[in-house]
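Minimal example, chain plus flavin mononucleotide.
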Amino acid sequence: MSHKIFIPRDTTTLALGGERVVTAVLKEAQARKLDIEIVRNGSRGISWLEPLIEVETATGRVAYGPVEPHDIAALFDTGFLNGNASHRLSLGDPEEIPYLKKQQRLTFARAGVIDPVSIEDYKAHGGFKGLDKSLTLTGQDIVDEVKASGLRGRGGAAFPTGIKWQTVHDCSADQKYIVCNADEGDSGTFADRLVMEADPLMLIEGMIISGLAVGATQGYIYLRSEYPVAHQVMNEAIANAYASGYLGGDIQGSGKAFNLEVRLGAAAYICGEETSLLESLEGKRGLVRFKPPLPAIEGLFGKPTVVNNVLSLAAVPFIMDKGSKAYADCGMGRSRGTLPFQLAGNLKQGGLVELAFGPTLRELIDDFGGGTESGLPMRAIQVGGPLGAYLPESQWDTPLDYEAFSAIGAVLGHGGIVVFDESVDMTEQARFSMEFCVAESCGKCTPCRIGSTRGVEVIDKIRSGNNVEANLALLDDLCETMIDGSLCAMGSMTPIPVKSAFQYFSEDIALANASSSVQAEAK
Ligand SMILES: Cc1cc2nc3c(=O)[nH]c(=O)nc-3n(C[C@H](O)[C@H](O)[C@H](O)COP(=O)(O)O)c2cc1C
Ligand code: SF4
């Protein structure tokens, strides 16, 4: 009898020695003359338990993790192929691991369960049902369903996806495009990568449905060039989708067409901004375009274009299969559905947590984070990537909802959450945020290009105790100019982390001053 073993092929698992685990399993099975089949699945997103390997048994799957190559012989000895729970790494039924069980997985339901590139496996787990239904509908019907779901763009700005699609739908043009923003440049975010490495056919299905909705026949995935594994998996999945007639000139005999390609990004944060992305996709330098015209009206090569984040497009198959109501029933206020929160930074249990909008930041961290990795108390949490606010404990009871975050001057963005312990120097973090803008500004407008450079200089003066009060007022002025005068969110949002660091953690100014005078004396 052949034993089926699942060992993820995603980036996190590979970084933690996944390939060596595969080699060790193969070697051990050969030595024991056991017939095994290894399926290279994607990750379930429980990063702190990777490499998490699972075996298929008569009563379901059993998980073990985190597994290292030197554990393999003992796992075989204790009968892990039959799901024996006596080994210390045994985690039992993976679906019952509390970290997973407490989630509401709509988008990530198949992640880690299936072989990411297998059409049969995808279909056996509900794949392509949303597309099958969409093929029977008009474009307007699909747009209406997505509107009714309340889905808002998951790439950061939270713009209603259905409204964007309506604009493209209503344009008449000889060619329209679907562009998937898979640049994922935000610090602490990895949900897009997990989709592409664990369930790429779901993204492909979402893009085809988007094409049917607006009348676009060509799609591009603009993929972060630092994601070689996602690149490989995406391309394999696209090839399989073509081979089985889901992509190409006649989708499942419907007479409708959709073609799809992956294009590698230019390794610049600003290339995630949609207009800069389009410039880059056209082969030019990633410079932000003036709006209007909106990309929905004049986008790629001047044609009407849907630009959506991976998670926005990946949510669409669920909406079309289960209905907009099933999606809209989750969430709070105007934030409907689920958001895959990404826990990173100084936490014991980093990983992906998909939940309906609504719990507080504190609940999320307490229920899933497992405390800091360092063991020191938590001090600050940055939510929403490098342009998001640093939140002190007094703000951790804010519900995870777009409007509730905006009411406290923060952003949920892409759902990235980075935790800092009490050893952090928040004036240094403020400097880092401003310096990030210096490095990543596209240079098109003065408040961002010059303002960020002057901002770093002013922060340095504050940190070294030079005329602190006057320089804090100057920094405030500079931030207002960046907010009001920048062409895009890179310049207008950089003040968010900078201002929050000084507002909520002002006691660190005195510490930075003291340490700089000690250093000056030592010289
Ligand atoms: C500086 C900057 C970087 C961005 N990076 C990304 C990114 O990496 N991925 C993404 O989906 N959106 C990113 N965005 C947001 C996009 O401009 C755009 O709003 C998004 O792709 C639209 O898709 P959605 O409506 O599905 O969110 C960025 C925006 C800015 C201003
Ligand atoms: S704000 Fe910065 S990144 Fe955006 S257009 Fe201006 S210079 Fe470019």
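Residues 270, 288, 441-445, 448-449, 486-488, 490-491 surround iron/sulfur cluster (ligand 2) (CB under 6 Å). DSSP finds 22 helices and 16 strands in the chain.
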